[in-house]
Amino acid sequence: MKEYWGSLASVLGVLAFCQSLLQVLFPPELRFAALKLFNRIFNVFNSYCYFDITEIDGVNTNELYNAVQLYLSSSVSISGSRLSLTRALNSSAITFGLTNNDTLFDTFNGVNVLWEHIVTQRQAQTFSWRPMPDEKRGFTLRIKKKDKSLILDSYLDYIMEKANDIRRKNEDRLLYTNSRGGSLDSRGHPWESVPFKHPSTFETLAMDPAKKGEIMEDLKDFANGQSFYQKTGRAWKRGYLLYGPPGTGKSSMIAAMANYLGYDIYDLELTEVHNNSELRKLLMKTSSKSIIVIEDIDCSINLSNRKKGTANNSSIGRSYCDPEMRSGPGVGTGDEGGNSITLSGLLNFTDGLWSCCGSERIFVFTTNHVDKLDPALLRSGRMDMHVFMNYCSFPALKILLKNYLGREESDLDEGVLKELEEVIGKAEMTPADISELLIKNRRNKDKAVIELLEALKERAERKSKSGKCVREKNLNDVEEEEQEKRALDSPKEGCAFDESCKKDEEDEEKKIK
Ligand SMILES: Nc1ncnc2c1ncn2[C@@H]1O[C@H](COP(=O)(O)OP(=O)(O)OP(=O)(O)O)[C@@H](O)[C@H]1O
Ligand SMILES: [Mg+2]
């Protein structure tokens, strides 16, 4: 300690000597130039270089300052003893930060750097167009001169990327919709947003675990696949088609995807889009790391014919939810008149050149009737993964029992479990139906399981009866068809129809005579 104070005193002494020397040797007008010169000499012998990143750059907020703050917050959260805490707008997470004049070492690519957070009082307010904070905040980065060229650019890029990740993780996800029918908001934005708080996750999603695992892996590969997509020359996007009966979890799956990847959702209401160019504009205004969803695509518009003009044909692609009735006049008339969207417009939206403005986007289409979709929409590369959301299976049922009743497989009676396994495949009940039953009786868990078993049995019985009727009807139809065939093959054998025809012909001849 003594040595420390001793060396500090000698440094101060040297400084004082230099200052008085400066005053004696240089007249006041040369003093500033001399100081600059000393500074240069000092810099030549100093092995470090320093970079100041101030919070406000002129009058604008410096994005790099916010990024550094967020980036460092991920390092200080564990190690620091005195930290500043902040919670940003639209965020439910708290971030840690360095307090005033605190320092922190960081390592990047094996190089050590030092960060210092410097906070000083702002001098008396100078004139400014906007109010300035009382404090001047900034970070100073200290790097060894020899390492500067080695890491500076890549280190700052890395910090920006990391900060974006942290921000996305902390911020609440947003759900966007274009339901205003093409009108723009005050900022010229065609999308409206609300915080997205859907609680569905892959843990709560009841489906075959192997299939679920496959989808989760595919999503992770996609999200981490920037270099792969770059290397293979593909646009960084992926398409999923979710199809299956109502209530099997297609929308829940979309929410689970968004929560899993931390992406925003753009719920595109096609019936509110008037033409292909509006569709393109909507696409251009979506951000990367997002899921663009078109639900019930078979009902949205008439998408069954790619050829311009022919989509107007009334006989093509009419589903039970008639597109013309759903989307009003003008649907499916091609680009002419600029008052409609076509299948080719939608295909360009998902797969054409426009689809890659921005990156890291997932397209999800859902439908209850996959057979009604145009094959062009289904070809691989466009919809990369087709996911069939089926009626509740036994593995899916186990997930529902665990989530809704807290009952694991081991908690259930073996006999009941076996019966459930036998009957679930025959009952063809959706996870939505089953979860309703479980919610109803969730206070009495044993009763819930028994009632579920009864409902499944009843449903299976009804199914087998209606199946029998259909089979019998089909058999009758086949028999009838065969009879007709026989009649056509051997008209000479004669039937009532042939006899009456002959008689009619004879009568006709008589009349003519
Ligand atoms: N696979 C599932 N796992 C967990 N819950 C499910 C599942 N499927 C349906 N549900 C429950 O049923 C409700 C309806 O499901 P969802 O809206 O996801 O079905 P959908 O397939 O999108 O139906 P639709 O085709 O009518 O749009 C959900 O709120 C959820 O609680
Ligand atoms: Mg749905």
TrEMBL record:
Keywords: Hydrolase, Magnesium. Residues 462-476, 483-492, 499-513 have a biased composition (Basic and acidic residues). It holds the Pfam family AAA_lid_At3g28540. The keyword Disulfide bond does not apply. It catalyses: ATP + H2O = ADP + phosphate + H(+). Residues 236-393 form the AAA+ ATPase domain. One of its GO terms (molecular function) is ATP binding. Its cofactor is Mg(2+). One of its GO terms (biological process) is response to stress. SUPFAM superfamilies: P-loop containing nucleoside triphosphate hydrolases (SSF52540). The keyword tRNA-binding does not apply. Residues 462-513 are annotated as: Disordered. Belongs to the AAA ATPase family. BCS1 subfamily. This is AAA+ ATPase domain-containing protein. It comes from Populus deltoides.
